[in-house]
Amino acid sequence: MGFAPASDDVYLRPTVRRALKVLVVGHFAVGKTTFVGTLSEIKPLRTEEVLTQAGALVDDLAGTRDKTTTTVALDFGRLTLNPSLVLYLFGTPGQQRFTRLWEDMTRGALGALVLADTRRLSHSFEVMGTLEDLGLPYAVAVNDFDDAPVHDLDEVREALDLLPETPLVRCDARDPDSSTRALIALAAYLLSRDAELEHA
C-alpha cells in the first residue's frame, strides 16, 4: 500500500469519492500531535493550549520536562491514499479528563493507532481498555523517544498484555516513513479482521 501525496491545496481532489477515519490515541505527551502533523498533507488543525500550573495539579508531567502545550480538543490531518480515497487522522487529547470527548470521536472510525511510550507503559492500559470497551480495533506503535529505554517488542507485548493478533510496531512520530509503516500495520490488521468476519 503506497500513499499518494496530494497537491498543496487544502481542498479535496475532485476525484475523491470516499473518506476513511482513523484515531491516533494514547496517554498524555506520547506524541499524537507530532504523529498527525508528520503525516498530514495539509496544515493540521491543532487545538493546543499552553500548560498551566492549574493543569499540573491534575496531569502527570513526569518525563515531559520539555512539553509546554497540550491538545484540548483534537488534532486533525488528511492523507490521500489514492485519487479517489482519503484518510482522515483524528488525534485525541491524552488526559483522563478528556476521555469522554474522544469516546465521541470513535464514531465512524475504522480503528485506532495507540501510541505508547516505554517510559510510561502502564499509562496505556486505560486507553486500550476504553477502546476495547467501545469495540474499536487497534494496533500499538511504540514511539521511540530519544531518552526512552529500548525493550524487545516481545517484552513490550507481554508488559501491555496484548493479544497475539494485536499488531505491535516501533515508530518515530517525527519520521514520515516510520509513521507510515505504523499506519500500514493498522490497515493490514483491519483488512485481515474484515476478511475473517466475511468467512465466519
Automatic annotation (TrEMBL):
Presence of the UniProt keyword ATP-binding in the record: no
SUPFAM superfamilies linked: P-loop containing nucleoside triphosphate hydrolases
Keyword terms of this UniProt record: GTP-binding, Hydrolase, Nucleotide-binding
Keyword flag Nucleotide-binding: yes
InterPro entries: Gliding_Motility_GTPase, Gpn, P-loop_NTPase
Family: Belongs to the GPN-loop GTPase family.
Protein name listed in UniProt: ATP/GTP-binding protein
Species this protein is from: Streptomyces ossamyceticus
Lineage of producing organism: Bacteria, Bacillati, Actinomycetota, Actinomycetes, Kitasatosporales
